[in-house]
Specification:
Layout lengths: L16 E11 L5 E10 L3 E5 L6 H9 L6 E6 L2 E2 L10 E4 L11 H11 L4 H14 L15 H14 L4 E5 L7 H18 L2 E6 L2 H7 L2 E6 L2 E6 L1 H6 L4 H6 L4 E5 L2 E5 L4 E4 L5 E10 L3 E8 L2 E8 H4 L7 E6 L3 E4 L3
Parallel strand pairs: 3-8, 3-9, 6-7, 7-8
Antiparallel strand pairs: 1-2, 1-4, 4-5, 9-10, 11-12, 12-18, 13-17, 14-15, 14-17, 15-16
């Protein structure tokens, strides 16, 4: 698939292009890297690079930040090329998985450090820090040290420190992956709230498809240094462009039929005892609360289905059923 932005472009309307990556290639000595990347990111957008480890998503983020030089191509912010600028002169700020807070400094000192280097008056620094701590729900922590805060709180401070620099782009490289599941969910919600309040453009990197679906306006699904698909979460989920996208995002059944592999979500398989196009035998029935998850043997394959309780409560292991395929995507067997 081409590494050019497709899908959802018409939805951008007249919004300003904040970041443009043009024909960008980055090669490492071992041959890895990313090839001929093209992407437009619009003002006030959260765009997430999603893919397995080693697919090139962090490479793209680091070329934007200036921590890696591009092999060829260009990167523009607000229409101006930044590829020849050192990291400290780029209109970007980056937040990593590790919080990178100085443990010997108070929270105030951590936040004020970069602002002092820019010769910003102390009164302005004090006001900006007070407002930013309120924005990230960390008011009153100015005199504390990083070691006195939880992981989630430290990451809030790391985000606040980046935002205080008023970057054109906020870059986040797997920022929540070290946090436990509950805190991770809270931080996703916090990030969306902060982004909405400030109207800042965010480039996010993750391997967690649930995280990408939850926070993004658009998702770039990557595989082996290339784009497989660019689109909204709905487009990625409902209309996967490749088998890799179909298998990487959410749960998916792959049913071989004629000369095609049919990709169908568990919730899009209709289960009946009399009418359907595929014969199968129920192998498990599990109550999941408001729905029932069942698995069905279809030949040598096992297919997962989610059904309403009014259907699932009457199914039994060993029962013969028929499946009808609802919304689905077909791929040639050679795909």
């Amino acid at each position: 698939m081409s590494n050019t932005m497709t899908g959802s472009e018409s939805a951008a309307g007249n919004r300003k292009v904040k970041l443009e990556i043009k024909n960008m290639t980055k090669h490492y000595d071992n041959g890895d890297g990313v090839e001929n990347i093209n992407l437009k990111v619009y003002e006030n957008e959260i765009v997430t690079f999603l893919g397995p480890s080693g697919c090139g998503k962090s490479t793209i983020l680091r070329t934007i930040a200036g921590f890696l030089d591009v092999t060829s191509g260009d990167i523009l912010v607000d229409g101006q090329s930044i590829v020849n600028l050192p990291p400290e002169n780029r209109p970007t700020a980056m937040v990593f998985q590790s919080y990178n807070l100085w443990p010997h400094m108070t929270i105030y000192e951590n936040l004020a450090f970069g602002l002092k280097l820019r010769k910003i008056p102390k009164k302005t620094i004090d006001e900006d820090i007070k407002n930013m701590l309120a924005l990230v729900s960390m008011s009153g922590t100015e005199k504390k040290y990083p070691g006195q805060l939880s992981g989630g709180q430290q990451q809030r401070i790391a985000i606040a420190r980046s935002l205080l620099l008023k970057p054109a782009l906020l870059l986040l490289d797997e920022p929540f992956s070290a946090l436990d599941a509950k805190i991770r969910q809270q931080m996703r919600e916090e990030l969306k709230r902060i982004q909405s309040n400030l109207g800042i453009t965010v480039i996010f990197v993750t391997h967690d498809q649930e995280e990408a679906m939850a926070i993004s306006h658009r998702i770039v699904v990557m595989n082996k240094g290339k784009f497989d698909q660019v689109g909204t979460p709905d487009e990625i989920y409902d209309q996967p462009a490749t088998l890799h996208v179909a298998s990487f995002i959410g749960e998916m059944n792959f049913i071989k039929k004629d000369k095609y592999t049919i990709a169908v979500r568990p919730e899009d398989l209709l289960v009946d005892t009399e009418n359907g196009e595929i014969d199968g035998t129920v192998s498990t029935v599990m109550l999941m609360g408001h729905y029932v998850s069942i698995t069905v043997h279809v030949g040598d394959e096992i297919v997962k289905c989610y059904v309403n309780r009014d259907i699932g409560d009457h199914l039994q292991v060993g029962q013969k059923v028929k499946l009808k395929i609802g919304k689905s995507t077909q791929f040639p067997l050679s795909a």
